[in-house]
UniProtKB/TrEMBL annotation:
Family membership noted in the UniProt record: Belongs to the glycosyl hydrolase 1 family.
Keyword Hydrolase in annotation: yes
Cellular component aspect of the GO annotation: cytosol
GO terms classed as biological process: lactose catabolic process via tagatose-6-phosphate
GO molecular function list: 6-phospho-beta-galactosidase activity; beta-glucosidase activity
Protein name per UniProt: 6-phospho-beta-galactosidase
Top-level lineage group: Bacteria
Keywords associated with the record: Glycosidase, Hydrolase
Length: 470
């Protein structure tokens, strides 16, 4: 195993516009789908203030720099730049990201910018979001505005964050807008359309001859059979097909392998549906696969699969009450607990070797990948705040285990160039609110004060020495 991270390895912190910025009606920002969703009666929280990054970004960047952090994932809020999603550009929105990007650079915290992190402008969302093919053209137009304005300084761009989460949470689990459950055909169509949008934006970026690199951020989840039984193996294979392989094929092979296509069609038939490929789509995917510069890999967890032949049944644990999750999908399988594997309070299995296996798989199955950034990894935890001190030792242990598997993958030839912990500071958690904390920096959401957690001090030592210190 490698003993040390390379000198140019990025030790970053990740954020996303809606989860940190707040200021949702300031400076001409239009509404996004999450504003509307979290304002419905009964909602337990909203994003109006979040971590107040819109006003506190200078403090956060100064803090980052002090703690050895040399990269930050931010996303641009589409509805700050183009408030209606299409049409007029909002100069005040451009000005905000100009200031933010300049501040990152001044602090030597390199910005890694995602164009879309779940927050489609409300009008486009109501018109069908990514199921409406016109959204693709609007996204390309918005990307162009971003590249024209920030492409001189930003050298790392991601088209999307986690299309699988949008598809799965919005159309299968139902805990993201539009809160549809069990509609696997729509989930697949959304993923395909987003892959086409991604491809078109990659091609646009390359045509503009800018100096940086462009990729996509996927959440990749290991899918392990709970036993050696062929039917459990099949369940793991099917879940993997939807969550991982379908979109990795699109991005890095520029097509869906015959096996991928056939299996996805079988899943769709079991769910009474199909998906549609439009004229020119496959040409777009093929072109972009030749040009994509990196894979941003988010890895939190793996799942253990058992065969299941009943109707779909899901309960999402959005409260941190351990052991309350149910996830069983018709035509695929059931995610079950593995007594040998610890979980978080939100029932996410802690399985760091799954990250190693996924990294090795990328190298094996997609040999044209150029480099990988771990774009998110981290642990949701109910931190205790005592006299300004936060002892989050379990989070340190979690990150440390993942770091050691990254070093092992690097030693085994995978080109991993950076790691962005989720999250830089505590943020709004999409379907869990403010009590599921991930940050290196604790945020008191009443005062918006920041406090470094024990993990921040530990992360600083690793970033400075490049060694996996204890
Ligand atoms: C990823 C998202 C992040 C973040 C993280 C933690 O899927 O890209 O935005 O939210 O998951 O998820 P959660 O807050 O649901 O625990």
């Amino acid at each position: 195993m490698e003993e040390k991270f390379a000198e140019d390895f990025i030790f970053g912190g990740a954020t996303a516009a809606f989860q940190v910025e707040g200021a949702t009606s300031e400076d001409g920002r239009g509404p996004c789908c999450w504003d509307e969703y979290l304002k419905r009666p009964g909602s337990r929280f909203n994003g109006d203030m979040a971590s107040d990054f819109y006003h506190k970004y200078k403090d956060d960047l100064e803090l980052s720099q002090k703690f050895g952090i040399n990269g930050i994932r931010i996303s641009i809020s589409w509805s700050r730049i183009i408030p209606q999603g299409k049409g007029a550009v909002n100069q005040l929105g451009i000005n905000f990201y100009d200031r933010l990007i300049d501040e990152c650079i001044q602090n030597n915290v390199e910005p890694f910018v995602t164009l879309h992190h779940f927050d489609t402008p409300l009008g486009l969302f109501e018109d069908g979001d990514w199921l409406n093919r016109e959204t693709i053209d609007h996204f390309v137009a918005y990307a162009k505005v971003c590249f024209e304005n920030f492409g001189d300084r930003v050298v790392k761009w991601a088209t999307f964050n986690e299309p699988w989460s949008i598809a799965q949470n919005g159309y299968i689990i139902g805990n993201f807008p539009p809160n549809v459950q069990y509609d696997i055909p729509k989930a697949v169509q959304i993923m395909h359309n987003m892959m086409v949008a991604h491809a078109k934006v990659v091609e646009l970026y390359k045509s503009m001859n800018l100096k940086g690199e462009i990729g996509i951020v996927h959440t990749l989840e290991g899918k392990c059979p709970i036993s050696d039984k062929p039917e459990d193996k099949r369940a793991a294979y099917l879940d993997d097909m939807l969550a991982n392989r379908f979109m990795l094929d699109a991005c890095f092979k520029g097509k869906y392998d015959a096996e991928t296509l056939q299996t996805v069609e079988e899943i769709l038939t079991a769910n009474d549906g199909s998906f549609k490929v439009f004229d020119g789509d496959m040409e777009s995917l093929a072109a972009a696969a030749k040009h994509i510069d990196f894979l941003g890999m988010n890895y939190y967890s793996s799942h253990f699969l058992q065969a299941y032949d009943g109707e779909s049944k899901i309960h999402h644990n959005g409260t941190g009450e351990k052991g309350t999750s149910i996830f069983a999908l018709k035509g695929i399988g059931a995610r079950v607990s593995n007594s040998a594997v610890e979980t978080t309070d939100w029932d996410w299995p802690i399985y760091p070797q799954g990250m190693y296996e996924m990294l090795m798989r990328i190298k094996r199955d997609y040999p044209n990948y150029k480099k990988i950034y771990i774009a998110e990894n981290g642990m949701g935890y109910k931190d205790d705040f005592e006299d300004g001190k936060i002892d989050d030792t379990p989070r340190i242990e979690y990150i440390k285990k993942h770091f050691s598997y990254i070093l092992k993958a690097i030693a085994d030839g995978v080109n991993v160039k950076g790691y962005y912990v989720w999250s830089l500071m505590d943020v709004l958690s999409w379907s869990n609110g403010y009590n599921k904390r991930y940050g290196l920096f604790y945020v008191d959401f009443n005062t918006q004060e920041r406090y470094p957690k024990k993990s921040a001090y530990w992360f600083k030592k690793v970033a400075e020495t490049k060694h996996l210190v204890s």
